[in-house]
Design a protein that fits this description.
By secondary structure, the protein is an alpha/beta fold. It has helices at about 15, 40-50, 70-80, 95-110, 120-125, 140-150; strands at about 5-10, 30-35, 55-60, 65, 85-90, 120, 160. The chain has a single domain (about 5-160), classed as Spore Coat Polysaccharide Biosynthesis Protein SpsA, Chain A (Alpha-Beta Complex). The protein is built from six helices and seven strands; from the N terminus they run βαβαββαβαβααβ. A five-stranded mixed beta sheet has the order 2-1-3-6-5. The chain has a two-stranded antiparallel ribbon with strand order 4-7. The longest helix has 13 residues, at about 70-80. It is globular, with a radius of gyration of 15 Å.
Length: about 170
Amino acid sequence: MSQELVTYIVLGSVNRLKNLKLPKSDIDSEYLRANLKDDEPFEKTLDKVITTSKGRIIVLLPPSSFPTANAKKLLRKISMIDLSAWGWFDIKEKNNLLNNLKKISTIVRSIPHLEQGIYFNKRLYFSVGGIGKFNNNYFNEIAKRLYSRIDPQNPLPALIIRTKNLDLF
């Protein structure tokens, strides 16, 4: 495990991610595909990918979205400090009703939406027992588990989303 390494895991099925071009991994970052399959529980697949990853900080991203350069710098700093931390990314600034409702929901429930992604310290992830049940509200269970240990960090800058289709399959 590298001191500064951050692992970015793009969520999605094998079919959804097969043509997705990931940035090159380097000394600061590692990019992996989750490759979720219908015949294997998603929780088991994610646990395997997270276990074999090399970074101290794990970032779960929706398909076709990536953090900004500023967010990457902040994640690297969090990784260097090596304290238990978790959080998510802001919602992209658009003044429409749906985005406003998502922002309010995130503030009230402290649970990020899929398009916001989520990050956490690898050690913290395993101390809370992993992702839990991975259902339609993807980060619901893991956010509750992480929240039971520590409060989330302030949201990082919004992800760069390259497509409107954030379906995992």
